[in-house]
Amino acid sequence: MVIGIEGQFPGPILNVTTNWNVVVNVKNNLKEPFLLTWNGIQQRKNSWQDGVSGTNCPIPAGWNWTYQFQVKDQIGSFFYFPSLNFQRSAGGYGGIIINNRDVIPLPFGNPDGDITLLISDWYIKSHDKLRKHVEDGVGLGAPDGVLFNGLGPYRYDESLVPNGISYEIINVEPGKTYRFRVHNVGISTSLNFRIQNHNLLLVETEGSYTVQQNYANMDIHVGQSFSFLVTMDQNATSDYYIVASSRFVNSSASARATGVAILHYSNSQGPASGPLPDPPNDFDSYFSMNQARSIRWNVSAGAARPNPQGSFKYGDITVTEVFVILNKPAELIDGKWRTMLNGISYLAPSTPLKLAQQFNVLGVYKLDFPNRLMNRPPKVDTSIINGTYKGFFEIIFQNNDSSVQNYHMDGYAFFVVGMDYGVWTENSRSTYNKWDGVARSTTQVFPGAWTAILVYLDNAGIWNLRAENLDSWYLGQEVYVSVVNPEIEVDTEIPLPGNTIYCGLLSSLQKLGMSEFLCSNGEYIYEAQDQAQRFKFSGGQSVAKPSRTVLVALFIAMLGAFLR
After folding, report:
1. H or E element: which one contains 292?
2. HEC-encoded secondary structure of 184-252
3. Which of 15, 24, 145, 366 lies 20 to 30 Å (CA to CA) from residue 357?
4. pTM
5. pLDDT, tens digit (0-9, with 9 covering 90-100), for 413-424
6. What is the Cα–Cα distance from 404 to 223, expressed in whole angstroms?
């Protein structure tokens, strides 16, 4: 069983352009609460639409709710996924494309086609059984397979791959160049992506144009997104393998945890055959780190705005606060398995943090998350970071776990300025890249290593900082950053939406009746103010600016699928 959207697995691609307003109506036909979050979409001034437990009440089973946000000053490749209850392991995800405005040229020639590939580890167990395993301290183990756009592997080896499995075929024309947007939407496994006999020209990652470099393959870690230009320059004596193979798992499991799709030229002379292209050596601990260090920001390219990306000289800004955030493997706290950041396992309150802040509800959270690990027993708490508006934070992630951990920050793109093995010290700053470290929203931290990021807190709201590895996240490895502008007369946040769902200590605020809102394109959308009546339509606040609006309806349901 998979979580499908509009009867599809994966869900439909959301294809928009910089500064468009997006209205997404979600009907939850699951038997449990649901939220969608938008990985890498910054939701400028609008954490109300972020779709995580700290900002939104869940959409209960049978209800519907409308997200409404602007893709303000962004371009690039992103994805959406379910943020609650381990649901991402069952699907519910899809790609997001934010195109440049016509007035801003691409820093490369217009590709002949645009192809989205969602690669993911896959576990045969249902998401609720996986969730129970994690709660019981069993762990996820190696995946049962790797999917390309929801499909299993091409039968590249009859001894490993059973007959009759559907696989992805990418049809191309010889001599043409295509943009491949590749997202690791899995839950725990780093994947190495490669196309047999073809170079991958990296051009963009998570909304930042990169220095253009060719790679034979790319390690794509959980939650990360990349764009490559791939030219069809081979003689097409046969089809070619597209491979996503697991990294850093034991060798006995790695063979089954390999996804294989097919690149098919229109003049291909036969099916793909023979061995897969070689992966990197798993025993070379520096290969993946050195590859990550080689990814650089294209400082001369314009992106969402005409001025070059490098106009923001992050290396010249004075750091206002430093956090060294240490993780550890899961351990028992009060008889339950929990993961922690700086000794605190996050406890999600029944009242979302953002609503508690809006209505001055005391006792829901504490603004006391420590800058470093403190000398005290680990605990479960709702402790968040008190971020200074327009402050410049340095955050060092220190990974004391035995696997690659990946961290994502909602609301921002941060600069990845350094990573290395060992323990971070003050002297590690001498290795920082202060000029063209890439700006992105998800970074990997290798086991026994550290990664340093810099982030400018210019987006007011409450923002989730989390492990993208789903088992770590589910057991408490997350924190929120509260960023409030003290000048209350300045309009730095969008007001509380009219269609807000209330829960927890604010459940009594759920209103009765139905209101309608006029969208900027002249169409009416509806807000069910008493969600308990389960109206068929719901909506969001009206759009103030006369810019392009795209309306999307998403029906979320469990689908039966045969996936080996």
Report:
1. helix 287-293
2. ECCCCCCEEEEECCCCEEEEEECCEEEEEEEECCEEECCCCEEEEEEECCCCCCCCEEEEEEECCCCHH
3. 24
4. 0.93
5. 999 999 999 999
6. 12
